[in-house]
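Sample pair:
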Amino acid sequence: MERKPTLLQLRRFYNITSAQLAQAAGVPLYQSYTVEVGGYTSRHIAERVLHAFSWLVKRRVTLNDVHISFSIPIEGIRLFDSTMLV
């Protein structure tokens, strides 16, 4: 099975900067970059970034076209708790 390209690969092909993409998507640069590299993100953020990318390149790119990993929210579990700090 052939691996899908990352959004980073497509962004570089179209000569768009990460900052341009983040600004067009209306998300912080770190969130946009997480989508670009195929990191764990929410579906909502991934769709925003892909919509912005599609608008910038004038070509429809969907979740089915790129490699993205979705995070799975687990109710009631905190990964960091500030009360743990001493």
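The chain has a mean pLDDT of 86.
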